[in-house]
Here is the input.
Amino acid sequence: MARITKSQAQAIKAARAAHFAVGNIVFSGYWGEHSLVLAFEETDAFTWSVTVQKVELIAGQWVATGQARSHCTEPSTKDRIAEQGIAA
Here is the structure.
């Protein structure tokens, strides 16, 4: 596996932090569902975790429909930010 440069690591870190900013609603292409980002912690480009809670848009409002869970799965090209800065 090729090593990444410091600038590449910084770009990965910045993109991940923007995607998992607290308050964002993110769409998982793999699961086909939306989650609210509750917390994001990062030590370096390779050590991080995010806490999310499944939500659904009901009558124009995002409503929690699942328990909070933590993971450290990188966003894929199928994932996207559905809304930014919703109050967590």
Summary: The chain has one domain: 6-83. The chain has one helix and five strands. The mean pLDDT is 92. The longest helix spans residues 6-19.
